[in-house]
Amino acid sequence: TFVFGIETSCDETAAAIIKNGTEIVANVVSSQIESHKRFGGVVPEIASRHHVEQIISVFEETLEQAELTFQHIDAIAVTKGPGLVGALLVGVNAGKAIAFAHGIPLVGVHHIAGHIYANRLVQEMSFPLLSLVVSGGHTELVYMKEHGSFEVIGETRDDAAGEAYDKVARTLNLPYPGGPYIDRLAAEGNDTYALPRIRLEEGSFDFSFSGLKSAVINTVHNAEQRGEEIIPENLAASFQASVVDVLTEKTVRAAKEYGVKQVLLAGGVAANKGLRSSLEHAFSEIDQVELLIPPLSLCTDNAAMIAAAGTVLFEQGKRDGLDMNGHPGLDLEQF
Ligand code: ATP
Ligand code: MG
Ligand code: FE
């Protein structure tokens, strides 16, 4: 089967073709980051307009790369939520138009299911498994007993991990999105600032990052007031150590408690070098659990992951009609 994936939930206009759920035939991502940088974040109106301008050429390039036409495509998989509603609607309507024009079945995909299924482009999944989803809008531990089944066993109560990275980066006057800049700075510094590890109640798999973010902001303000210099490399390293420690600790505990065979890292923050090496180290000591980490290009938003998740849903008989809508707050357990 060939599945054509479409992703427009935020600031990447993306399309891809996946063969048999696991093999990338074409993968095209057009990023708008340059247009949003000067505003320090994604501007929804600008995002929608860019998607409209880019989507046709992204589709054409995808078919060209694959040397296929829509006649060869068995299903269209498109992100129907969560995300910016105006941005989602561009992909959803493009998907519906192609499905209608060529008589191809249509499957709506949850964006986070896509992030998780990026792992299937690397290696086959074995169940039960646990996925640590860390992105710009989400921080969740997701338990999967089989394909297409998602149980959220823990989630952030305030900021997402990526959001905390981006806010801390702004405090340090780094460009948007700041995650990769903090990651690079952290590699040059040491954990000297003694920032808190926020673990919440004993046994909880939930997360909280807003207190840590405030601790970083206070550290910078207090230094300014005393006329002292902060050492950005060390502050970045201290912040990253705090995030990575808590994420690693809770993921290891959940993997043991739920007796999973695999742990899958997913989402944009999965590109973080500190997090990748901390998880690799932790799971190298647990023989029963296999750790999967997608390559950097499949961690941030792309349509290959949407087509990978869409293939499984398509094979399970899931379909959406031409009345499909964009859902900014789509629920992972219900969609
Ligand atoms: P969601 O997937 O929750 O809807 P999103 O699609 O905007 O949100 P992604 O594209 O998955 O989020 O990830 C983007 C986030 O990943 C940004 O917050 C960015 O700073 C962060 N990020 C990217 N690379 C790194 C890195 N190396 N270290 C830390 N954070 C990173
Ligand atoms: Mg993005
Ligand atoms: Fe994403």
TrEMBL record:
Keywords per UniProt: Acyltransferase, Cytoplasm, Iron, Metal-binding, Transferase, tRNA processing
Catalytically driven reaction(s): L-threonylcarbamoyladenylate + adenosine(37) in tRNA = N(6)-L-threonylcarbamoyladenosine(37) in tRNA + AMP + H(+)
Record GO cellular component, one term: cytoplasm
Binding, substrate = 133-137, 166, 179, 183, 272
Name the domain of life: Bacteria
UniProt-listed InterPro entries: ATPase_NBD, Gcp-like_dom, KAE1/TsaD, Peptidase_M22_CS, TsaD
What is the annotated localization of this protein? Cytoplasm
Task: Give the cofactors, semicolon-separated.
Answer: Fe(2+)
Does Transferase appear among the keywords? Answer: yes
Transmembrane parts of this sequence = none
- Among the Pfam families in the record, one is TsaD
- Span of domain Gcp-like: 23-307
Give its E.C. classification number: 2.3.1.234
Q: HAMAP family, from UniProt?
A: TsaD
> So what does this one do?
Required for the formation of a threonylcarbamoyl group on adenosine at position 37 (t(6)A37) in tRNAs that read codons beginning with adenine. Is involved in the transfer of the threonylcarbamoyl moiety of threonylcarbamoyl-AMP (TC-AMP) to the N6 group of A37, together with TsaE and TsaB. TsaD likely plays a direct catalytic role in this reaction.
User: What protein name does the entry list?
Assistant: tRNA N6-adenosine threonylcarbamoyltransferase
Q: Which organism is it from?
A: Domibacillus antri
